[in-house]
Design goal:
Layout (H helix, E strand, L loop, with lengths): L1 H19 L1 H22 L2 H28 L1
Helix pairs in contact: 1-2, 2-3
Length: about 70
């Protein structure tokens, strides 16, 4: 089951990259992190939760930094 979740996460990121370009990576990681957190909570896997939360936080920081920089440039 864990392998299926990881494969699904990777496919979400790749599809996001193919459809939206570089912005799809951030969206794919965001969705994958949320899926990972839900899976970790349901299956009570602390390691899965930990790494999914880390990915979520890093992704949110990068998205916020990107948009703040975009606003400054405009």
């Amino acid at each position: 089951m864990r392998n299926n979740i990881l494969i699904t996460m990777a496919l979400l990121i790749l599809v996001g990259l193919a459809v939206q370009g570089i912005f799809g990576i951030a969206a794919g990681i965001l969705i994958s992190a949320i899926i990972g957190i839900v899976y970790g909570v349901v299956k009570k896997k602390k390691l899965f939760i930990k790494w999914s939360v880390i990915a979520l936080v890093i992704d949110l920081v990068c998205i916020i930094a990107f948009y703040l920089r975009l606003v400054q440039v405009m």
